[in-house]
Amino acid sequence: MAWGGGKRAVKLVILYLEFNVDKVNQLYVYIAPTRRIVGTNMNPLTATSNRSDIRLLVGFTFLALAYFYVHDPVTLSAFEWVPSEEEIQKYRQSWNPLSEGPLLIQAVDIHPEGQLSVRPFIYGQVAEHSYGNRFSLPTERKPGPVHLYSVSPLVTIAYGLTNHVEIGTALSMSSFWARDSQSFNQGKGGPMTTNTGFGDVSLFVKYRPIIQDPDTSRPSVTLYSQIILPSSRWTGTERPPGGFAPIGRLPSTRFGELGFTEGLTFRKNFRPFRISGGVFYTYAAPGSEGATTTYTGDIVNTRFVFEHFLDDKKSLAYNLEFVGLHTLTWRTDGHAINRGQRSGSTTLGIEPVIQWRFGDSNFVGAAGVLFTVAGQNALDAIYPNFSIQWYWRKTGKVIMR
User: Residue 132 is part of a domain; what is its CATH number?
Assistant: First the structure.
C-alpha cells in the first residue's frame, strides 16, 4: 500500500518474525504482501499462523488514526505521512514547557534532529497481596502467595535522528527480595529469596506521521516499535515472582524473554493541560526448557496521562497516569500457551505524579507512586518511582518534544 505522492509516498510492509531465544539458528521471517520467507531451518509455521490477529491489529491502528480525523474532512483528505516543515515549526513555537512529562509512557512527540536526552529512573514495587481468578477491587484481594519487594533502575537514551524519527535504547538492572507469605504470616519466618543482576535491554524507534496543530484539535500521533533483548537471561539474572519487573516507562514485558512490541500513541497540548496515551501489543518469541519449546501469551499495555501545569517557568505540574497491563490467552502465531498465566491476567493502576525543572537548567525531574486499583490473577502492589532527565543539543537551545 502507499499513501501520499511523489517523495512522500509511504509503503506499508508487515513483518512477521519468530526467533527461538535458545536456538539462534532458527529464524523465520514472513513479509506481506510478497509472501517471501527467508531464514534457516524453515518450517511451515507461517502457513498455520493466526494471521487474522495481525490483520485485526493493523485494522485497529488505522481505525484509531481515522477517528482523530473524522471531525475534519479537509485535513483528512490532505493528510500525508510526513509532516511539513511548516507544521513542525508551528508546533514548536506553541505552548509546551520543558519538563519531565509522564513517568509511565514514552514521550509521544519527537526530539528535533540532533537533540538527545538521558533519563535515569528508579522503579520500585511492594506487593504483599494478590488478586484471584476473578476481576476484582482491592477490597477482595488476598494475602500472598509471596511478599515481594523489588527495585529496577532504568536508563533511557533517546536521540532525534531526523525531525520525524527518534531512536533510543533502555538499559536496566533488577533486584528483588521475596519470601513465602504463609510462613511469614504465621510467624515462622522462613528463607528469603533474593537476586540482583542485569535486566533486559530494549531498542526502540518512533515515527511521528501526524504532528499536532495548536490551532485545531488535531493531536500528534506516533508509531512505536521496540525489540526487547533477554539480556537478563544471558547474564543469569533470576526472574522475579510473577515474571515481570516493576511497571515502568516502557511497555511491560515478561522478564528474560525476547519480545517485539508495536504501539500507537497520541498527545495533545492545550494550555495549561497536556493529554497523552497509547496502546502497545507485545509478542514474545518461543523459548525453551530442556527439550520443550515454551509459549507464553501476548501482552497488551495501555496508558493514559493527564498533565496540569501550575507554573510554566518552573515547569511545575501534577500528573494523573492511568495504567493497564493485560496478559492474553492467545499468541499471534497461533501456538497454544504452555507457560505463564494461561487464563490471562489484568492489572489496572493510577499514579499521581509531581514534576518540576531544576532552575533554568536542562535538568528536569518527576516523582510519583503507582497504586493498583483492580486486577485479576495479578499482584496487588504499590510502585514508587522517580526520574531525572537531561536534555542536550549540539547547537542552540534545547526544545521540548
Answer: 2.40.160.40
Q: What are phi and psi of 177, to 5 degrees?
A: -130, 125
Is residue 145 scored above 70 in pLDDT?
yes
Write out the H or E segment, with its range, that includes residue 76: helix 73-77
Q: Which three cell numbers stand for residue 57?
A: 491489529
Report the distance separating Cα 182 and Cα 351, nearest Å.
Answer: 29
Percentage of residues in the chain having pLDDT higher than 70: 78
Q: For residue 272, is the peptide bond before it cis, meaning its omega torsion is within 30 degrees of 0? A: yes
Amino acid (1-letter code) at residue 310: L
Count other Cβ atoms within 10 Å, centred on residue 106: 26
Domains in the chain: how many in total?
1
DSSP string for residues in 220-267: EEEEEEEEEE-HHHHTTPPPPTTSBPPP-SSPP-BTT--EEEEEEEEE
Coil, strand, or helix at residue 129?
A: strand
**Domain around 256:** 82-393
- pLDDT surpassing 80 at residue 78: no
Contact predicate 373/70, CB 8 Å: no
Q: Are 154 and 249 in contact (CB under 8 A)?
A: yes
